[in-house]
Amino acid sequence: MKGCKIVQKRNQIINWFLRKHKEWVRDNKLVSWAEKLGIRLNCNGTLDESQLFHLFVLAILWNSRPTYRAEKGEEVFLNIKDESTLSNFRKAPGDDNLWRVLKEIADRKIGNPSVFNILNFVTNGKVNNYLVWVRVKEILNSEGMGAKNFDENRLKRFYYIFNPKNEKRYYKGDAYLTKKVFLIFREIRIQFRNLGKYQYHPAICCVPDNHVEDAITDPAIFGLISKSEKYGMERVEWLLKISEKVAELFCKPPYELYDLPIFLAHKSRII
Question: Residue 28 and residue 175: Cα distance in Å, rounded?
Answer without folding.
Answer: 35
